[in-house]
Amino acid sequence: MRGALLISLGLALASCGQDPDPAEQAAEDKKIVEMVRAANDAPPPIEEVIPQAILYPDIEKADLYGASCAYAPGTSMGARVIAREADAYMKIDGDMVRFAADPGARELAGRTRSLYNGRRFSLRLQIDGEGQEDPNASESTIYQGTIWLRDRWDRNVYTGSGTVSCGV
Question: How crowded is residue 154: how many other Cβ atoms within 10 Å of its Cβ?
Fold first, then answer.
């Protein structure tokens, strides 16, 4: 019995020095490559974004005058998005971020679009129902709407619903 154990131990040690079968090595290499690809393709953790109110100095600096729709979440009067025919703006981390209108997206009130694209984010807009004349502004219409800010992996990083004011 002891002799059989020594022989099997000797055979096991002898097989350690041999080159692996090429088919097995290729399968193992392929498995490792797929694990590395999966690790590299995995998106980073979601970072929630809290857009800031766009104030009058921001509007002046970005020259955001003319026909547009301003989205303000909840009961806030501070616009978080100003959307125009060709572009839209949000204030993120103190910087005015510009988004270009997607010409293939659905047209909304004020000739705005339902989708705008930026370098780091995409912006989706929705206007619900019929608008009402704004009692505080003669050439404005008020709607209810929602905004979605998505990162480059198309994950929601901000959602807000509230008042949308469209006008000149």
Answer: 8
Q: Which helix (H) or strand (E) segment is 123 a member of?
A: strand 121-133
DSSP class of 110: G
CB of 132 closer than 8 Å to CB of 101:
no
Spell out a b/e string for 115-136, using b for 16 or more CB atoms within 10 Å of the CB, else e. Answer: bbebeebbbbbbbeeebeeeee
DSSP per-residue string spanning 138-150: TTEEEEEEEEEEE
Give tens-digit pLDDT for 83-117: 999 999 999 999 999 999 999 999 999 999 999 99
- Report whether 38 contacts 136 (CB < 8 A): no
Task: Give the predicted TM-score (pTM) of the model.
Answer: 0.75
| Of 100, 90, 149, the residue nearest 122 (C-alpha) | 149
> Exposed e or buried b for every residue in 20-42, given b needs 16+ CB within 10 A?
eeeeeeeeeeeeeeeeeeeeeee
The amino acid sitting at 162 is: G
